[in-house]
Fold N-acylneuraminate cytidylyltransferase.
Amino acid sequence: MDSVEKGPPPPSPTRGAAVRGRPPKLQRNSRGGQGRGVEKPPHLAALILARGGSKGIPLKNIKHLAGVPLIGWVLRAALDSGAFQSVWVSTDHDEIENVAKQFGAQVHRRSSEVSKDSSTSLDAIIEFLNYHNEVDIVGNIQATSPCLHPTDLQKVAEMIREEGYDSVFSVVRRHQFRWSEIQKGVREVTEPLNLNPAKRPRRQDWDGELYENGSFYFAKRHLIEMGYLQGGKMAYYEMRAEHSVDIDVDIDWPIAEQRVLRYGYFGKEKLKEIKLLVCNIDGCLTNGHIYVSGDQKEIISYDVKDAIGISLLKKSGIEVRLISERACSKQTLSSLKLDCKMEVSISDKLAVVDEWRKEMGLCWKEVAYLGNEVSDEECLKRVGLSGAPADACSTAQKAVGYICKCNGGRGAIREFAEHIFLLMEKVNNSCQK
């Protein structure tokens, strides 16, 4: 995360910086419109700052969290909120640019001057505004807040547009008692800062305190140009504690994944219970390697973890079926004793999966698909839940909602099964509310 500066800014970046963008050309009027004529509503732009450098985790902003690039979680929330006239990613890195565009965001190539470890968020935001004269309000969303939901952004946009606030920032309520810090070697005693030790309140009897959680900072242009992200008519927006996740400071990656799977935003479409998983054979069930014996018999290998994953899915009531465009030996596959219906030599996988779906009386949202090849693309785009092994081709990876950490034939099915179970728990919990 870029460091957030709230005081007077450093000098603004020069117009001659090497930035892909168009410098401002039009004179702004007092309401934020351009030129004369009918005044337009203020242009609210979402801006996610995501430079390539990271001292902790290399290219952290696009590292996969629960199968999705980290920045993808906030981009999905911003785009689906409908609160912004434009959604931007400011970056200096080609790979981050590609991921941003895949999710539907526009990209501002920031200059090297505002891409240093010492650069602040304010530096990058001011540069962005210098090249985007149409923007009146900036919603600076942190890429490291993967549990952000569209409803939060919609409410803040309303506070800015309808209630006239100049700046709004996110906070979370915490019930933590604070004590004064004592420097080593100094003979002093610590003092309570927000409690009376003689009358310690119970949690339910204390409202707690509000802390910035860094998820977002919304501010109007005139305030930013004066060097502030917080100021003027100012308000906070309190986020739910379970949605307040900051990868930078709060928790490590595995724990963050569990939080995201339980509390993250997965898109406009409501999740439905999965009833059928279709898995490509070559490259998903197997690693794609084929061995031929001396008597010309085909030999394949698979991971026992994947067989266990298939067994667990079936025990939970999820049908598992296998498919391949190659003329696999059904006798060889049957010897694996997976007890799954399969079809091989299939040129049109979508047609077969559609037939299976209709046969079981399912809608597409109740079907999951694990694929790794170009021939799987249409199925991956159509189903309710899609996944690909870590070594799947780029076409397949771009089409899915979850990318496994495991390679094909090396635990990808078991991993995807665990992902399905977690999402089904989320579906069941929402049904009980």
